[in-house]
Structure formats: structure tokens, C-alpha cells
Amino acid sequence: MNINKKFKYYRWLIWGILVSAYVISQFHRNAIGVLREDLMIEFGLSSTLFASLAATYSYSYMIMQIPTGLLADSLGAKKTVTIGSIVAGIGSFTMGFAPNVVVLFMGRLLVGLGVSVIFVCILKTQSQWFSASEFGTMAGLTLFIGGLGGVLAQTPLTVMVSMFSWRFSFGVMGITGLIIALLCHVFVRNKPSDMGLPSFEALEGNTSNDSNVGKSFLMKGLAVVLRNPNTWAAIITFSGFTAALSSFSAVWGRSYMVDVYGISKVDASNYIMIVVLGLALGSVAIGKLSDTIKKEKTTYDNFWISKYCLLGYHCVCQRWQTTD
I want to staple 221 with a disulfide (CB 3.0 to 4.6 A). Which of 59, 142, 258, 304 is the partner? Predict the structure, then answer.
């Protein structure tokens, strides 16, 4: 296998493992809404306490975003995602075997902490293994594949719970998370040089390595974003749209349709699944479109604005997804 083929093979392998971890993240984000009735009955939860349980994921996720950036730069994506997947797997097991509400909350907290590191690490890895001109497409593809985790947390999870139990479902997801952690530890590399491969820029004949930047460049990119009014316009707009969407699709939508419209749990999950799938497909389309219509001369500033806008949008979505 020549260097070009080896490079392309391994970058997709690495991305595939990391995005699989992101699927688990989105599954846990959306699964709580499907399990609302089961959890409220078994643990005697009120609507307020259930909302707090759902929000535990979001709060821990939000708080971890800045530390995650530091971990991605210091430990690297490989170790960070490996540890995060282990923590999330333990959290999933904890929820599945929870004897009381306190342990249930602890499990949800661990899940949120574990999966919170994945998305940022994917962005970090993309900057090392893919070119800046592919960033929008890859980000959209990442969100699309991750969205499939939300799809799995609808009708498929409803069927699994009816056939087995919600505890069994969390056990399966815990095992899956640990398997992904093992794959990440064995196969994922932070950058091509860790495998003795040249950078993407070197393969393309570009002597400058724009993706392999230091902390000073990161801070410069962040400063550019903070000074750009379009950044804040994008974050505010997306947070407004997504607050209602995420609250509906991840927590309350299924129960609302069952209680208000009297439809079955499976049918309600099917409706939510369509919403999640539409969001996933839209992510791919917009990501590809953004790379297609981009000017041929793409500056460093444009790349970092795209990166931090996407990251900011993601953080805001997680913050507001469980607003009651």
C-alpha cells in the first residue's frame, strides 16, 4: 500500500471510530425522552425531577467544553475519547443497574461527562487528517452520522424496551461504549506523523502545514471569532431554532404526542425519528454546500470562524435542549 492510499485508508478508519463514539453520544442525548414513562413509574419521578435528570446530561456536557479543548490539545484526541468512552460506558451501566434515584442521576452525570469530549476531539482530528476545504463537508457528515444515534434512540429503542427492558438497553449501550473505547485506543492516532505519515498538506504538495497549529494560532482564531458579529448572529439564531427542536425531539415530544393525541408509543417515536433524520440529512447538505460555494481563496480566518461557530452552536444546543 503506497503512502497516499495508506493515508486515506487510515484517516477514514480513525474518523469512523470517533464518529461511532459520537453516535453513542447522540443516542444518550435522545434516549431519555423515550424512557420517560418507564423511569417515572419505576423511580416515582415527578415531571420536574425527570427534567432535572434529563438536564444533568446537558449541564455536564456544557461545563466540560472548555476543559475538553484543553484535553484535546494536551492529551490528544485518542486518549481523551478513549477515557471519555470508558466513563460514558460506566455511566450507562450505572443507569441500567441503578437501584435508586441518586444512582440514576450519577449514571446520567457520568454519561454526560464521558460523551462531552467526543465532538471537539472529532474537530481536532479533522484538522489534522483532512484539509480546511473539506471542513464543512466533514462536519456535516459527522453531524449526519451522529444524528443516526438520535434515530436509534427513537423507534428502535422503543422496540428494544418493549422486547426486553430499558435496563437491558442501557447495558447494551454500555458494552458498545467500552468496545469503541478499545478500538479508539488501538487504532486512533492524533495526527499522521504518529504513524510515520506525511501531513495532508505535504501530500498535496503544500509545504505549509495549516492544520498543525499551536496554541497561539488557536487563540488568534478564537479572537477573530469573538470580534466577528456574524458569529454571534449565527449562535443566537441557531440557539433559538434548536432550543425548541431539541427539547421536543430529545425529551418531551414523544410523551406529548402520546398523552395529547393518544397515538401509540411506536407511532410517536416514528414521528420524532423523522425529525431527527431530517436534521441529519440537512447537516450533510449544508456542509457540502458550504464547501462548494466557498470562495476559492479560503483564509485561515474563515476556517476558524467555521470551526468555532459550529462548536459554539453545538454547545448552545446542548445547554438548552432540556429547557422545560
Answer: 304
The residue assigned the cell 451501566 is: 93
Tell me the DSSP string of 15-36: HHHHHHHHHHHHHHHHHHHHTH
Residue 158, all three cell numbers: 422503543
Ordered by where they begin, the domains of the chain are: 3-190+213-320 (1.20.1250.20)
Q: Quickly tell me which residue has 467526543 as its cell.
A: 118
SS3 263: coil
* Averaged pLDDT, 250-279: 79
SS3 breakdown of the chain: % helix, strand, coil, rounded to 5? 85, 0, 15
130-149 confidence digits (pLDDT tens): 887 777 788 888 888 888 88
Q: What cell numbers appear for 193 in the block? A: 506523523
- Angstrom distance (rounded) from CA 121 to CA 132: 16
pTM greater than 0.85:
no
Cβ pair 111, 35 in contact under 8 A: no
Other beta carbons within 10 angstroms of residue 255's beta carbon come to: 18
| Amino acid in position 239 | S
- The DSSP annotation for 143-157 comes to HHHHHHHHHHTTHHH
Closest CA relative to residue 246, chosen from 29, 12, 14, 24? 29
